[in-house]
Prior knowledge:
Layout: H1 8-26, H2 32-41, H3 48-55, H4 61-69
Helix pairs in contact: 1-4
Amino acid sequence: DKFKEADWDEMKQAMQSHAQLYSDFYDTxxxxxxxxxxxxYIKGRPQASELRQKLVQxxxxxxxxxxxxxx
Length: 71
């Protein structure tokens, strides 16, 4: 059987959780590797290019949450 595709609200929640878990686990200000993962979440979504440009400049889970609230 196929898996159900996540809706946009579920995807945003997963992105926020992933960013927070990354930050908690690595306990560092080095957020660069997480940016790549965030970009993969939005591949093929409406406004993906605009959103990707913003997400790849984030430095914290709080910044990710702020950006995602705009979409």
